[in-house]
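Phosphoglycerate dehydrogenase
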Amino acid sequence: MTIPTISPLGAKNATVYLHTPFHPKAEVYAEQKFGKLLRPHDGSVEEIMAQIDGILLRVSNITRDMLLQAPNLRIISRNGVGVDNIHIPTAKERGVIVTNCPGGNAQAVAELALTLALTVLRRVVEVDNRIRSGEKVPSITALAPGLFGRTVGLVGMGDTSYELAKLLLAFNCPILVYSPTSPLTRWTDTNDPKYPTTIPHERVDSLEELLKRSDVVSLHCPLNDSTRGLIGKKELEIMKNDAVIINTARGGIIDERALEDALEYGKLGGAGVDVWEVEPAYGETMGKLGKLRNTVVLPHLGGSTDSVTLDGCMKAVDIMADYFDGKQVRNRVI
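Structure:
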């Protein structure tokens, strides 16, 4: 199979596909940077793939079939960290470069993880819906556990987990961490330029121990072969009956049907879910999770603040433009 050449094309000569919308200002910027910017309404997938040199990607999937229909494709520039929405084996097979924008949305995602935890633990959405429907809700009937002083278990020790841990310090939350791939000195070395704030925490040896001891479990690991289905029926049964689980990482890490059952039958206190096995999430794609009182559901909004989205989209455009102009490839994943 023919591999795209690596000679500089020049950004002004490149035809780029914007698979899903970017920040409006970044879209204008991309139109100025590249020779031609295509969007889904500009033709069928087959017609568009046949023309393009690059793909700007924020959400949605780039499938094997799409990649095979793009003979001139050189680069996919992703605004975000995870690349599980790209068929990586085919990208490697075709010699397509994949880049990402790590770390840029960590504070925004951490902020949302905290928001979901507080919203579930204070029963905000449930009570809001009840009083809007006309029900009188005396405060004595809406008592909630709250977050202050609760033990929080973090799965993963990346940038988002770190930012959330810093926020949790204000709530006097004991922090447990399970992250078998992270060095033992992480969050303890003040000379670490990436994680300069020391986070009081306890590293646990197993996921089971973290699940048993935590009042709140927040997931911050990538989706890969080892984490897909990481939290299933068995793991949910280990957790406390009043515990809360938060997922702002990736859909597929939690078995959604097992989570439904645990919540519906009182085996778990609540859940805040921002990422899904099927995205975009709406209506029936969420199953019972979108209907239960003890859930708070969002359509993958973790990094979607205005400033963070603009910065990330602009960075993705610049990474691609620099590549086409023959400059060093930044943030290369493959």
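Residues 103 and 159 are 6 Å apart (CA to CA).
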